[in-house]
Amino acid sequence: MKHFPALAIRTLPVIALCAVMAPAAPKPVALDSYDAQAKALLKQMTLEEKIGQMTQADQMYLKDPNDIATYFLGSVLSGGDSDPKDGNSLAAWTELYDSCQKIALKTRLKIPLLYGVDVVHGHNNVLGAVIFPHNIGLGCTRDAELVEKVSQITAQEVKATGINWAFAPCVAAPQDIRWGRIYEGYSEDPKLVKVLGAAAVRGLQGTGLKDPDAVLACAKHYVADGGTSFGTGSPLLDQGDAKVDEDTLRKIHLPGYVSAIDAGVGTVMPSYSSWNGVKCSASKKLMTDILKDELGFQGFLISDYNAVNQLAPDFKQAIAISINAGMDMVMAPEDYREFYNDLKALVEEGKVPQSRIDDAVTRILRVKFAMGLMDKKHSPLADRSLQAMFGSPEHRTVARQAVRESLVLLKNRKKTLPLDRSVKRVHVAGKSADDLGNQCGGWTIDWQGKSGRVTTGGTTIYAAIQTTVSKDTKVTYSRDGTGAEGADAGVVVIGEEPYAEMKGDKKDLSLDAEDIAAVKNMKKAGIPVVVVLISGRPMILGEVLEDADAVVAAWLPGTEGEGVTDVLFGDFSPTGKLSYTWPRSMEQLPLNINMKKVKYDPLFKYGYGLKY
Ligand code: BGC
User: Which helix (H) or strand (E) holds 194?
Assistant: First the structure.
């Protein structure tokens, strides 16, 4: 692990409110330059083989692993909780990938599989992977070069398991922090989403899709998943309805896709949500007219998990609606056999034109050729030599940098921060001080995440404090903040417990009673109190804001807690700037910089962040 000189405050370049450090990027190779090969292969294919390419099953629901060959599957995925049967070690994931790929290679045409996983903040289902800060934190770094690097490392760790497709980045521009997927979005500001989303695509897809350590990226969830109105979703906003006019859709929710396409993104995932009552996965206007025809997207569309099932009570009818509107591959985790049979029947009955099938399959094959999957010289099986760097100190050093650049200093009364590492005693408290699960949040080992000692490696903030202070400094701990009397300073780490889509929708973002009490107990000891907030979004701080002498928003930093102590103890001055507006009260919500008719009087404005 890299060491930083003690107490030397390094100030990173001062970044203006919306300015982002964006590297100049070379133009990616156009996907349709592979059309000659894709079309030649298409000519050899039967209808069954074509429909197979359009089908994606979840590995955990395969009725028989040989279904990959029987149904000529174009792809399999592992959804949030779909781990290998033998546990989720690096070895088990690699074996799982190889075993699926080997079956695909037994088919007549030997077209390799795409294997897709959710890479929300690193290769987050696999034990020992580096877990990066969630996108909300990366948004606060305003550092596109860093986001590209983070995505490059993520791609390497994914490819080390053989897996070749990442359902990332999420280029939502969430407008209401009550949505449970808020932390998957970089920012409420489409300008920032645009720059960081493109950086992530470049990082994942490398200098070209054929790079041995690149993966296929997927911009999601198209479009306006972060623009749904409160009360229209399940339970509140998720998968709801974006009731906005076309101008707003284009200005706020589309820019992330425009820049992802410019960066060469190979796939896009239409959203579960609706736009003015029409499901995105059923909308010809959104999928074909705007994305493919107007924006010139040459890759393919993959539907969200069981999203097509939601389009009509009858699955066959739902399939016809979605495919005719422009969907190219369907994520049919359990119902893949039904999808295959129904789509075949729909073509035979003339309800889905052959030309639509040929277009979808050409798009899928184009991407597979661009990835070099069909090159005889390169095996599509896992290259285990990439595993040497999996979860390595080098990768963790970049994650640590991302953590410290993501921190936003909200308050610093009388220069409470930075703390002196050589005082006699520091008291640490709060439910999230020594909880890697809370520190990582959702989409970590489990789909929804889990509090506690997640079984993956990493450093909690408490552990990081212990190794940062001088050898003569005593670090004491109590979860509830009592017993701090006599300490020179106190650090209370509080906030949210893990959640992901659906479950994270919340009506009330107030801090819980346990957190408020921990800060109060610490305060009673009469020592300077530093609050570190671990959360997937801005929260209502209430009395904690007054009780605390310093407040740091650390978001969901992931496995590298030392990124937090780098700033707490002054090795680095904070540089993070809010990527979302921070409200005073729930009554103000929704509140963001894009709302023209609402008085903008938040507690902390978009772009706010103190320095030392
Ligand atoms: C989520 C997607 C994810 C997919 C596959 C869905 O529930 O909305 O973001 O890529 O599952 O796991």
Answer: helix 190-205
The two tokens of residue 419 are 């703390």
The two tokens of residue 166 are: 């990442």
CA distances from 518 to 305, 365, 446, 511 (A): 40, 57, 28, 11
Minimum CA distance residue for ligand 1 atom 6: 305
Locate the domains of the chain by residue range: 115-372, 394-588
pTM of the model: 0.95
Expressed in angstroms and rounded, the spacing between residue 154 Cα and the centre of ligand 1 is: 18
What pLDDT digit, counting tens, does each position of 502-512 carry? 999 999 999 99
Q: Which of 148, 184, 241, 304 is catalytic?
A: 304
Question: Which letter does DSSP use for residue 444 in this model?
Answer: B
Given ligand 1 and candidates 118, 123, 125, 135, which is best to mutate, with the most ligand atoms within 8 Å of its CB?
118
Distance 181 CA to ligand 1 centre (A): 11
Are 240 and 229 in contact by the 8 Å Cβ rule? The answer is yes
Q: Cα-flanking dihedrals φ and ψ of residue 273, to 5°?
A: -75, 175
Q: Which of 174, 196, 222 is nearest to 594 (CA)?
A: 174
Query: Do 115-372 and 394-588 fold alike per CATH?
Result: no
In 3D space, the residue among 273, 266, 130 whose CA is nearest the CA of residue 211 turns out to be 266
Mutational pocket test of ligand 1: of 280, 305, 331, the residue with most ligand atoms within 8 Å of the beta carbon:
305
For domain 394-588, say whether CATH 3.40.50.1700 is its number.
yes
For atom 8 of ligand 1, the residue with the nearest CA is 304
For residue 501, indicate whether it is catalytic.
yes
Q: Find the residues whose C-beta lies inside 6 A of ligand 1.
A: 79-80, 118, 167, 220, 304-305, 501
Question: How far does residue 271's CA lie from ligand 1's centre (Å)?
Answer: 9
Please tell me the total number of residues recorded for the chain in this structure. 612
CB neighbourhood size of 223 (10 A): 30
Answer yes or no: 349 catalytic. no
Catalytic residue among 328, 501, 515, 547: 501
Alpha carbon 382 to its chain centroid, in Å, reads 24
- Mind listing the pLDDT tens digit for each residue in 54-79? 999 999 999 999 999 999 999 999 99
CATH of 115-372, one of 3.40.30.10, 3.40.630.30, 3.20.20.80, 3.20.20.300: 3.20.20.300
Q: How far is CA 235 from the centre of its chain?
A: 21
Alpha carbon nearest to ligand 1 atom 12, residue: 79
529-534/489-495 β-pairing: parallel
* Predicted local distance difference test score (pLDDT) of residue 257: 98
